[in-house]
């Protein structure tokens, strides 16, 4: 199995962006951790984009290829109905989609308390740094 690990806007800046909130490791480090965790059980296909359309197209790709998704929608979490509808296509097709966040958005600004994704996600993991993704990977491999 392949697992798509999709990351939304500004997550390319991990490592230098607000390290007090997001830690000092970058996306390449995250990929290495997940590849090691997955070992021979899954192939990790980790991507990042700042572009809402591209992220939506990747979710369509997940539907067409029946590929489970770990999704950090970043700021799109809080307002993108287009992304929500695309994510719903995944879960309505019976494919797991886990929403993850590095930080705990509920412990931050009020606008981060709303997720338009959570209602259609298979599950949500937030607040554990990169371990949010590692826990999601365990869930997804276990669910498959
Ligand atoms: C985030 C939380 C979002 O509120 C924020 O816009 C991000 C990252 C997280 O992983 O903690 O970009 O999704």
Kindly summarize this structure in a few lines:
The protein has one domain: Rossmann fold (3-Layer(aba) Sandwich). 38% of the residues lie in helices and 17% in strands. It is built from five helices and five strands.
Describe this structure in words.
With 144 residues, the protein is of the alpha/beta class. It has a single domain, classed as 3-Layer(aba) Sandwich (Rossmann fold). Helices cover 38% and strands 17% of the residues. The protein contains five helices and five strands; from the N terminus they run E-H-H-E-H-E-H-E-E-H. It has helices at 19-22, 27-38, 52-65, 81-92, 131-143; strands at 2-7, 43-48, 69-72, 97-101, 123-126. The protein has a five-stranded parallel sheet, with helices on both faces. Helix 4 (81-92) links the parallel strand 3 (69-72) and strand 4. Helix 2 runs parallel beside helix 5 (131-143) and helix 3 (52-65) runs parallel beside helix 4 (81-92). The longest helix is centred in the middle third of the chain and has 14 residues, at 52-65. The radius of gyration is 14 Å and the shape is globular. The chain starts with a strand and ends with a helix. The model has no long low-confidence stretch (mean pLDDT 95). 1,3,4-trihydroxy-5-OXO-cyclohexanecarboxylic acid (DQA) binds at residues 10, 72, 74-75, 77, 101-103, 105, 112.
